[in-house]
Amino acid sequence: MLLSLAVWLGGLIFLAFVLAPTAFSPGLLPTRHMAGSIVGRSLDILHYMAIVSGIVFLLASMLYSRMTAGNARPLAARHLLIVLMLLLTVISQFAISPKMHALRAEMGVIDNVPLDSPLRMEFNRLHVWSEKFEEAVLLLGLAALYTTAQAFR
User: Fold this and answer.
1) pLDDT at 152
2) Which end of the chain is more exposed for a tag (fewer CB within 10 A), N or C?
3) What is the rounded distance in angstroms from the CA atom of residue 100 to the CA atom of residue 63?
4) What is the tally of structural domains in the chain?
């Protein structure tokens, strides 16, 4: 149960604080477009890992609660937090990311698209939402980690 949450949070932290800043660091890659392709693909993979991790966490945690307390406690804080994390991840993966991928394909190399282009502005708007969703998932995940630790003291 904790391993699944650690995989999810560790992936988020790695993506946000290591992969993205490294990929976008000046001079490392020839274009920001290439960096965005790497980070975007990595985020897609992370989302699928997160969905599996969330489901594993919920199943393991409810089974543990059932075995130790006689009740799966589906409305326990840790379970509700994980469900919210899953909801945000699914929205990001299946609503926000596909639109961003389509816009990137339509624009071509994003570095060559003017900042005031409607396509670029829409991409930037979606990018902000994507970042907000990932930040929320991370904060919810830290809260889930805390509530899980408290439940097993």
Assistant:
1) 83
2) C
3) 38
4) 1
